[in-house]
Amino acid sequence: MTLKYVGQNITRPDAVQKATGKALFLADLKLPGMLYAAILRPAYAHAKIVSIDVSEAEKEPGVVKVVTGKGCAKKHVYGDNIRDQIPMADEKVRHMGEALAAVVATNPHAAKEALKKIKVQYQPLPVYVQALDAIDPKAVPIHEKAGDYWHLPCFTPKNGSNLANYYHLIKGDAEKGFQSSDVVVEGEFKYPFGSCAAIEPHGSIVWFHEDNTIEIWSSSICPFIIREEVARVYGRPESDVRVHIPEVGGCFGYKSDIVVEQTIAYIASFVPGYPVKWVATRKEDFTSTLLGHGMLIRMKIGAKKDGRLMALKTTVYHSTGAYSDTGVHVGNAAAHNSGGAYEYPNCDLETHLVYTNTPPIGAWRGYGHPEAMLAQERLIDILARKLKMDPFVLRDKNYLGPGKETALGEKLWETNGDIRKCVAIVKKAVFDKPKPKEDADYCYGRGFAAVMKSPKGAPFSSKGAYVKFNADGSVVVNCGGAEVGQGLRNVVRLVAAETLKIPPERIHVYTEIDTQFSPWEWQTIGSMFTKQGGRAVMRACLKAIEQMKQTASQALRCDVDLLEYDGEKVFLSSDPSVNVPIEKLVRGYMYENGMTVGEVVQAVADARLPRYSGYDEKGQGSMGVSYTFGAQAAEIRIEKKTGKIIVDHFASSFDVGRVIQPQQIRGQVTGGVVMTIGAALTEEVRFDKDGKLVNPFFRTYRFPTIKDAPKRQTVEFVETPGTIGPFGARGIGEHPVIGAPPAILNAIYDATGIDFFEIPVTPEKMKRALDAKADGGKR
Amino acid sequence: MAEKITFTVNRVPRTVEIEGWEKLIDVLRDQLGLTGTKQGCDDYSCGACTVLLNGKAENSCKVFAKKLNGAEVLTIEALAQGTKLHPIQEGLIEAGAVQCGFCIPGIAMRLYSLFERKLDASETEIIDALEEHLCRCTGYESILEGAKLAQKKMKAQN
Q1: Residue B32 belongs to a domain with what CATH number?
Q2: Which of B47, B78, B109 is the last residue of a domain?
């Protein structure tokens, strides 16, 4: 298929506004009569609230209202999967980032100052930071009556236990699989707490209007979920809640699901008539939104002597934080995707999702995949050593592909992509040349990881598109997909241009989301916009073309199936000189006497993944539907004196089906790779034993600067068309973050002979391990 | 205690009333409506709020407003001339460095400060300047490329 516009590097529609500082983000918005909220965070991570005294705070200058959570647990419970959240602590606090009280004032400074005057008395309870501690039967339950919360039938919260959910997937017979294996390898892996750490912190504005409608602005990617949940809690029709999403300054997962909005709505409900604004400090963005990961993974794999994988056993302990609603699917996804890019005939995969006294876990780019594949890809390398087999050969014997079946029980086809082509590209870029010899200062290593990613969505998840033709033949496309930097507006523009055969410069794409005008979309997650949103755009465009043909058939007095469309006109296929230009069709066709027939050309469509399902009794189901495969590899250098690990070159290749915009897709990959070079080498959100987050700043939560980025990245794509996305395209947003940690850890082994099972491998840890090795393991 | 300060912002003299706790970023964003300058952190580590203060790149979240009397401040809003973008903005856009865009105003001002001072800055010097900025989207490849493209464009204009 030759394409005219898809595959072109057109400038993204939001670039100029952003580069001139004119683009409006949440913090930039000012509304008439605006008030400002500041939120008090508890001094304990787990405690009963004995009393809160706000009388002094109420007297402070500029203070309009002081709010506590007293009684809110009775009517304000919320959550999409498990309703275990409340907007403000009531009776007890469950983590130190929770909202405990709030001050509304005439300016943000006055609000913050008044917080200092609130006096709270607590009765401390034992604090649990890690799942394994909280799951102990003797542990004090963080939620006493978790089992009583409303929850989807597939989840299993229980009263008196910190086990928020237990998920178990069975494929074949893992026990028999291990019995028939010649070799078994196992390990315990740790993917610690992390922050998505977008440069724009979370924020929200909520306005309870006098006419009982509610208006909300938020730096979020799920306006329609916010609308639904706020409407439910405050007993309003959804149509009376209007949610705006301005520009979003990065997401990477943690601005999905409802996060801070219920809290700000609760605060604003005490001052109806006034818009209340709250923007997280960086510290609050760490402590009081969503974190990522927090997983301990025990994994065991069994194989035949010839390298055939026979069985996989995975046990995930997920420290999911004080509220499990946003973490429950992440934990499940880590288990059911833990086979990675390989076929295992026998699987026994489980996740213990455990309440802990830490901020809730939510989506973090990759959604369970990076954690699981750190374990899988490290163990495959270890297995290859045990089998004395080239790890590329071992992997090649087991890749998922046409005719193979995933752990979820889904069959794969050629249209799911070709991992072997990606492997060949990466292998050539990194391994098909001699490795530098160790010298006085450095040792050198190379490591590989195969990547599999499926979306984690919901069966009802859909994305809408609205296409409107203007009188001059130009086009407006409106969708509900949140632009967070990934460049989806250009995807919309290119897909519409290609389908409508109209140049992209004549297609205008929406700039903000407003639930009053935007087509419905569940939420912009799971690397699904190009595939699903793009498909919706394509379907709407095709409907619009059909409308023009219908009208033209009346104008030209012929059957509609004799007509063709070329972006400028509708014409008779047997005689193109008989035609109507589209400008004469878009408002209906007007005869010479002024009489007009035909529909105004505007069309709505949506798209969902086909046959996406929930879990069956074996924990399986159609929950991938669309898979993307790829390969990644790292060339590293380790400074022997300091233990510092330098990534000199990183190579990535993914079978994305179709590249829509080459510059943007490269940017997704280079950015994702650097993001998880951070996860592999420096990033960890740390808690002390009291549950205090000790490094809630960029100086202490170190993520890569330009000097930590590899000097060179190889990024190449394979384009085996898929069947769902527009022009064969698949998702790519999350995929680049999956392979870097295992590839780097495999490279560390290659350089030093030292196996790491947890990240980040900081210079200190590396140096200690090098010294211990030099001492012959005596230290 | 409120006090009045007079300083120049984007070549226009401004007098504003400030409180003792206010920083330059608060005056720019809240009082003057210049929201192109962004706040991403609390510990002077992200660089998103970078402006030119008396000709030098500075974190505007670091500078107390009361010290601004007589100062000259230049923000991202002054970089383009009408609809004509500055070559730094063009370079960053053409290289694909604008993704979420939250870090871009600060980076643009840093590069402006660097290239106004030293148009033939070496790649190492450019990287040293960019190290003051955090970006979570791009992996920095396109930012460096955009900086070099901007430098080339500025040289061609000279």
Answers
A1: 3.10.20.30
A2: B78
Q: Residue B102: its chain A contacts at CB < 8 A? A: 25, 198-200, 249-250
Q: Do B41 and A109 touch (CB under 8 A)?
A: no
Name the class of domain A292-402+413-457+613-774.
Answer: alpha beta
Question: What's the fold here for domain A462-607?
Answer: Aldehyde Oxidoreductase; domain 4 (3.30.365)
A524/A256 Cα distance (integer angstroms):
8
ipTM of the predicted structure? 0.98
Q: Do B96 and A666 touch (CB under 8 A)?
A: yes
Beta pairing partners, A206: A216, A276
Q: How far apart are CA A633 and CA A741, in angstroms?
A: 10
At A157-216, the pLDDT tens digits run: 999 999 999 999 999 999 999 999 999 999 999 999 999 999 999 999 999 999 999 999
By the CB < 8 Å criterion, does A484 face chain B? yes
For residue B37, what is the nearest residue in chain A, using CA coordinates? A21
Each residue's pLDDT tens digit, A457-512: 888 899 999 999 999 999 999 999 999 999 999 999 999 999 999 999 999 999 99
What CA dihedral angle connects A591, A593, A598 and A603, to 10 degrees?
80
Distance from CA of B139 to the nearest CA of A (A): 4
Query: What domain range is B148 assigned to?
Result: 87-157
Quote the CA–CA distance of A738 and A736 in Å, as a whole number: 6
Q: Does B138 touch chain A (CB under 8 A)?
A: yes
CATH number of A31-125+200-249+255-287: 3.90.1170.50
Determine whether the interchain pair B139/A25 forms a contact, defined as Cβ–Cβ distance below 8 Å: no
B113 touches chain A (CB under 8 A): no
Q: What's the length of chain B? A: 158
Contact A687, A693 (CB under 8 A): yes
Which ranges in chain A are annotated with CATH 3.30.365.10?
Answer: 292-402+413-457+613-774, 462-607
Q: From B35, which residue of chain A is nearest by alpha-carbon distance?
A: A28
